[in-house]
Write a structure and sequence with these properties.
Layout lengths: L1 E6 L5 H11 L6 E4 L6 H11 L3 H25 L4 E4 L2 H11 L7 H9 L8 E6 L2 H8 L11 H17 L4 E5 L4 H18 L7
Parallel strand pairs: 1-3, 1-4, 2-3, 4-5
The structure holds thymidine-5'-diphosphate (TYD).
GO biological process, one term: dUDP biosynthetic process
Keywords: ATP-binding, Kinase, Nucleotide biosynthesis, Nucleotide-binding, Transferase
Pfam families: Thymidylate_kin
Length: 205
């Protein structure tokens, strides 16, 4: 089963992921991420840092995703494992729809066509939602900001995320990212267990 964790920068994904590692240890999940699960991720990070052309940047994110699916996600799912990914395809539809605006006529359609036929759809996606100014306050503790991490960009990115969640309510679970960390982690872990049990999967003993 493939679970993805999404949200704007500063939403608290890293903290949640760290807690899930402990809470779900008995299910022996594979934790992975986009970008960066394979060597293409290093190229993507360089592209982000240098602010390359938005189309080139989007294609690199898609290349990273293709490699991630082929080398990590598909083999793990074929082996019957629980996979939890820190960011996945919804990040592309949320962020690149914003960065590609003005560069392409219909970024959503372009992105959808690029993923068609090979990408793997998540079974369940948790979307961490919070006011953008709260996310920026959290990011202020960090030294450098990526070009995505600006208020106007993140506001639009979160709107795209919410539109996707609205269009696919059976896949998305919205999480109040301003809740206390422990509460969020227990809620997400319980939901993952509930869905696993429904399908008769994990923990495997
Ligand atoms: P991430 O590694 O989650 O951020 P960090 O480690 O800096 O907290 O992702 C890096 C940035 O890339 C983040 O701002 C979101 C963005 N991103 C996209 O724009 N498109 C994508 O497809 C993905 C996976 C990430």
């Amino acid at each position: 089963m493939l679970i993805t964790i999404e949200g704007i920068d500063g939403a608290g994904k890293s903290t949640l992921l760290a807690s899930l590692k402990k809470e779900l240890a008995d299910c022996d999940p594979i934790f992975t991420r986009e970008p960066g699960a394979t060597w293409i991720g290093q190229v993507v990070r360089q592209a982000i840092a240098e602010e390359v052309d938005p189309v080139a940047e989007a294609l690199l994110f898609v290349a990273d995703h293709a490699m991630h699916c082929a080398a990590v996600i598909r083999p793990a799912l074929d082996a019957g494992r629980l996979v939890i990914s820190d960011r996945y395809t919804d990040s592309r539809f949320a962020y690149q729809q914003v960065t590609l605006r003005g560069h392409l006529q219909d970024p959503r359609r372009w992105l959808a066509a690029l993923h068609e036929g090979w990408s793997i759809r998540p079974d369940l996606t948790f979307l961490l939602v919070l006011p953008v100014h709260r996310a920026l306050e959290r990011l202020d503790g960090e030294n450098t900001r990526e070009h995505f991490e600006r208020e106007e960009v993140l506001t639009e990115v979160q709107a795209e995320y919410l539109a996707r969640a609205g269009a696919e309510p059976s896949r998305f679970i919205l999480v109040d990212a301003e809740e206390e960390r422990g509460v969020i982690a227990s809620f997400v872990a319980e939901e993952i267990r509930r869905v696993c049990e429904l399908r008769g999967r994990y923990p495997r003993s």
